[in-house]
């Protein structure tokens, strides 16, 4: 396999290929304020042509809630709302845009955006290591504000192990389905439905089946595969060819090798087999080729990049895909981000471009596309210019857009919150750290990745003769253990038949100890000595003090799956408890009983009531997120924002309300701390709706307070949580 340039060099050396372009030359980087003003001008021009006027501007109360939901995916806290409303500065809206885009909340919210598009699925079989690393890669890319073209390039050229390159999750997602992966790539990044051409010429577009296979040839050689240490595989192949060794001895050694590589058996390696090309199907029926012919790489539009060797094919595909000269690359992401903020795309659907596609506002679409390139594919900068337009700050349009292509964009579109926004807004009412990263989840991921890297690295240079000696020693132990295990099984059957429950439990315990002892011996006699002779920089693994040392020196710190053992999890539990106690201290609570209860409460919600991006992707069936329409991550952008009967039942009968009104929730503590009944009502309204109650609402609720007493506050919370005003982004 030909060695390819590192990603950072490739990103700096994109080839200037002579593609047919609708994007035009790359303009000089303009001032963001000028871009926002030009967007407003282009929209106003379309109003004038249609005899329309823009919607009126929104109040600060509507604006702050809208901005928080659009940028960081949750409602503002009561303190965030009060701070913004009290700020007299004229530029406070612009400053808030910048602050939110720079926050961790942005990472949470836009991770959900990409998880939907990329179909990130934590439940993929065999993906114990790959998917967590892939999720971390996406979040870190957002956190670092990685340019979009670099992000896409890294995904489509990804190779290596998960602990070195989380981007390999892009190909792992469609492992064994290279043609489907290509179809998804074209749909996601070029907004073009090519999948129908996989089996026949496209019935509704110009693409032929041959076009599909030409495109598939670029990425067909990408091969995700389970990775067991190559050095062991080489020795095992030598053993299998040894004519002097008996069949039984070979089988014994193979079992020994399987035990030895157990800690790294979940590793996945993505490689690019440059000579691998797709074949046309056996029933190919068109005259331009024969069934089962191999197909060479060729782009679907524009001039083809010159490929001088098979090893260049994947990089040249990336060059073509992300080039500013590609007629759809910048256009599609510009339209996707526009829709994310405004509620409807300039082109709908966002992933069904055709030659005859006409945007709702062609001049605006062309301008946005050019600015995306001029801004260096900086997604935050692009979002900022949209959010700072006067257009974004107008009242939402509540009309039913049965024909989105005809919308004149007199204002953003009134939208119901997505499942993640609803959940994350509830988290804001419950968790004092609503934007916190899932500390424990990330630590356990780091430990797993570090363990896999350590165990893989230390074995790479182990001499073949040493590897064979390892296997023979383990095979001998396995034989002895097998004899002992057979005897224990006989004793277990006898004790159960005799009704000797305690004895049976003891025998089972001995059986488990026997298995664990073998794993411990493998670690102590093979991995640990190899670690001692290998230079490993624990500082680079970003592990808390003590955990890295334990992993290096304690053979029981990592279990047979390469994951934290119970001993290591106890250490993590201690760190988590200390973290919760520190947060309680920062909240200034003096009462020791309350401090203790609150600390326990915070440990629970830090795992169970945290941001949706910290949870399994997707959440398990039956979870609040799934009930409210979270994508199942099986199809690109498969979320549903429609109301349903199960949602109503979840709100009526589920535990959500009790969680929000728990004594130790943020909302309950804020309401309790409010000095007067009027202040308590203000607290509830500001917390849920980012506004104070109207005069009529005050009169009605204060009258109810005379009859219901303090129960009226729970009633108000319940009513507002079930109101349309809570669920919609105005």
Biggest sheet: strands side by side, in what order?
Answer: 1-3-2
Shape: globular
Give the DSSP E fraction (strand runs of 2 or more residues).
under 5%
Number of strands: 5
Question: How is this structure best described in words?
Answer:
- The chain has a 3-stranded antiparallel sheet, with no helix packed on it. A two-stranded antiparallel ribbon has the order 4-5.
- The radius of gyration is 30 Å and the shape is globular.
- Among the domains are: 1-26 and 147-227 and 267-322, no CATH class; 31-57 and 327-416, no CATH class; 439-564, no CATH class.
- It is 56% helix and 2% strand.
- The chain contains 32 helices and 5 strands.
- It has helices at 7-11, 32-50, 60-71, 78-86, 92-101, 104-118, 130-143, 148-156, 169-172, 178-190, 209-219, 230-241, 247-260, 313-322, 329-342, 362-374, 379-387, 419-430, 439-460, 464-497, 501-532, 547-553, 566-586, 592-608, 624-627, 645-653, 656-660, 666-673, 677-689, 695-708, 711-721, 724-727, and strands at residues 160-161, 222-226, 268-272, 415-416, 728-729.
- Helix 15 packs across helix 17 (379-387).
- The chain is an all-alpha fold.
């Amino acid at each position: 396999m030909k060695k390819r340039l590192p990603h950072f060099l490739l990103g700096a050396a994109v080839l200037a290929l002579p593609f047919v372009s609708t994007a035009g030359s790359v303009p000089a980087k303009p001032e963001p304020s000028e871009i926002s003003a030009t967007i407003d001008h282009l929209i106003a021009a379309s109003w004038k042509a249609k005899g329309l006027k823009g919607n009126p501007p929104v109040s600060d109360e509507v604006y702050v809630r809208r901005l928080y939901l659009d940028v960081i995916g949750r409602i503002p806290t009561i303190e965030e709302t009060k701070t913004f409303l009290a700020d007299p500065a004229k530029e406070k809206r612009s400053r808030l845009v910048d602050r939110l885009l720079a926050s961790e909340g942005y990472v949470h919210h836009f991770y959900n955006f990409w998880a939907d598009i990329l179909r990130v699925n934590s439940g993929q079989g065999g993906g114990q290591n790959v998917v967590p690393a892939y999720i971390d890669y996406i979040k870190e890319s957002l956190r670092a504000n990685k340019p979009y073209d670099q992000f896409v390039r890294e995904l489509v050229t990804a190779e290596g192990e998960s602990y070195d390159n989380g981007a390999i999750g892009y190909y792992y997602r469609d492992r064994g389905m290279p043609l489907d992966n290509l179809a998804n790539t074209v749909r996601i990044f070029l907004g073009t439905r090519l999948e129908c051409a996989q089996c026949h010429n496209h019935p509704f577009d110009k693409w032929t089946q041959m076009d599909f296979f030409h495109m598939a040839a670029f990425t067909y050689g990408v091969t995700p595969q389970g990775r067991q240490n190559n050095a062991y595989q080489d020795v095992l192949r030598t053993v299998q060819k040894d004519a002097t060794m008996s069949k039984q001895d070979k089988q014994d050694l193979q079992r020994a090798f399987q035990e030895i590589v157990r800690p790294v058996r979940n590793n996945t390696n993505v490689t690019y087999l440059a000579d691998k090309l797709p074949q046309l199907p056996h029933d190919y029926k068109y005259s331009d080729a024969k069934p089962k012919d191999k197909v060479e790489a060729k782009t679907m539009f524009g001039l083809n990049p010159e490929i001088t060797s098979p090893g260049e094919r994947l990089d040249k595909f990336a060059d073509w895909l992300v080039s500013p000269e590609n007629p759809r690359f910048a256009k599609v992401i510009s339209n996707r981000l526009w829709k994310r903020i405004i509620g409807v795309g300039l082109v709908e659907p966002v992933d069904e471009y055709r030659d005859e596609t006409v945007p709702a506002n062609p001049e605006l679409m062309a301008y946005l596309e050019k600015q995306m390139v001029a801004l260096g594919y900086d997604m935050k900068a692009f979002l900022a210019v949209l959010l700072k337009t006067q257009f974004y700050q107008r009242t939402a349009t509540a009309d039913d857009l049965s024909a989105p292509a005809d919308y004149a964009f007199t204002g953003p579109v009134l939208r119901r919150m997505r499942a993640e926004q609803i959940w994350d807004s509830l988290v804001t009412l419950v968790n004092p750290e609503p934007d916190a990263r899932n500390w424990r989840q990330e630590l356990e991921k780091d430990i797993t990745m570090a363990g896999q890297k350590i165990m893989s690295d230390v074995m790479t240079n182990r001499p073949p003769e040493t590897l064979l000696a390892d296997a023979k020693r383990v095979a001998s132990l396995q034989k002895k253990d097998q004899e002992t295990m057979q005897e224990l099984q006989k004793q277990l059957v006898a004790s159960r038949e005799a009704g000797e429950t305690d004895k049976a439990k003891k025998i089972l315990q001995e059986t488990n100890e026997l298995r664990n002892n073998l794993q411990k011996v493998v670690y102590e006699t093979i991995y640990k000595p190899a670690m001692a002779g290998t230079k490993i920089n624990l500082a680079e693994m970003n592990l808390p003090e003590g955990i890295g040392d334990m992993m290096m020196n304690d053979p029981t710190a990592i279990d047979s799956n390469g994951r934290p053992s119970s001993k290591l999890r106890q250490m993590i539990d201690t760190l988590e408890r200390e973290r919760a106690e520190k947060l309680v201290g920062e909240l200034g609570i003096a009462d020791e009983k309350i401090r203790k209860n609150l600390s326990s409460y915070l440990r629970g919600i830090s795992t169970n009531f945290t941001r949706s991006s910290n949870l399994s992707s997707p959440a398990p069936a039956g979870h609040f997120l799934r009930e409210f329409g979270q994508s199942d991550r099986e199809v690109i952008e498969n979320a549903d924002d429609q109301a349903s009967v199960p949602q109503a039942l979840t709100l009526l009968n589920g535990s959500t309300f009790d969680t929000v009104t728990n004594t130790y929730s943020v909302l309950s503590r804020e309401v309790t701390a409010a000095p007067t009944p009027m202040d308590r009502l203000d607290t509830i309204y500001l917390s849920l709706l980012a506004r104070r109650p109207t005069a009529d609402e005050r009169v009605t609720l204060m009258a109810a307070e005379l009859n219901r007493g303090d129960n009226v506050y729970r009633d108000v919370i319940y009513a507002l949580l079930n109101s349309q005003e809570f669920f919609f982004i105005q």
